[in-house]
Amino acid sequence: MLDLYGLPKDFPGKSSIPTTNNPFEKAEYLEKQIGVDIGQQNFIPNLLVHEFEGLLYSNPQAFVEWFDQSTVEQLQRERESFSSPEHINDSPITAPSKRILQCCPGYDKPLHGSLIAMDIGLDTIRQQCQHFGKWLTKLENIT
Fold first, then answer.
1. 56 and 128 Cβ atoms separated by less than 8 Å
2. Which among 23, 28, 78, 113 could disulfide-bond with 109, CB atoms 3.0 to 4.6 Å apart, if both were Cys?
3. Which residues, 6+ apart, have CB-to-CB distance to 62 below 8 Å?
4. Could you give the CA distance from residue 5 to residue 77 in angstroms, rounded to a whole number?
5. What is the pLDDT of residues 38-60, one digit of tens each?
6. How far is CA 50 from CA 64, 66, 69, 141, in A?
7. Distance CA 5, CA 90 (A)
8. Cβ distance 76 to 61 under 8 Å?
9. How far apart are CA 49 and CA 58, in angstroms?
10. pTM attached to this predicted model
């Protein structure tokens, strides 16, 4: 699992990525390219669109245990301005992690990120984040 946002220039397929505004198409293309590069049938790559913190926008209410209600409301407004958590901007200034840090100055990714993700729950995250959900389904269907 890697973040689509900020991949190195020499990442497999990055120099030939199709011109599209669709982050899912970009991620799927690069996942195929790294799969070819690795060349192992049991390698099932996932590029988060755009980064881990995007998944946390699946339910901003889960931040309430760690941050105040006005912060939660700000995160909810940000979430509502995009079609899904995975569409939240990938600019260095407005990436999901930067947005969270801006309104949650004490946010600590290893601590808060994992606990908030557990509070949200995998079912909600996969319902809100279609690309991530498709990857989980692939893993679940391994026989």
1. no
2. 113
3. 56, 116, 119, 120
4. 22
5. 999 899 999 998 889 999 999 99
6. 23, 23, 26, 25
7. 6
8. yes
9. 13
10. 0.89
Q: In this structure, what token pair is assigned to residue 32?
A: 């195929």
Q: Which two tokens stand for residue 113?
A: 């990120």
C-alpha span between 62 and 27 (Å, rounded): 27
Q: How many residues does the chain have?
A: 143
Are β-strands 2-3 and 47-48 bridged in parallel, bridged antiparallel, or unpaired? parallel
Q: Are 61 and 16 in contact (CB under 8 A)?
A: no
Alpha-carbon gap, residue 142 to 135, rounded angstroms: 11
DSSP 31-78: HHHHHHHH--TT----EESS-HHHHHTT-GGGGGGTS-HHHHHHHHHH
| Helix, strand, coil share (%) of the chain residues, nearest 5 | 60, 5, 40
pLDDT at 74: 96
Give the residue carrying structure tokens 């290893």: 110
Give the residues across from 48 on adjacent strands: 3
H-helix or E-strand spanning residue 130 = helix 130-140
User: Tokens at residue 127, please?
Assistant: 């319902």
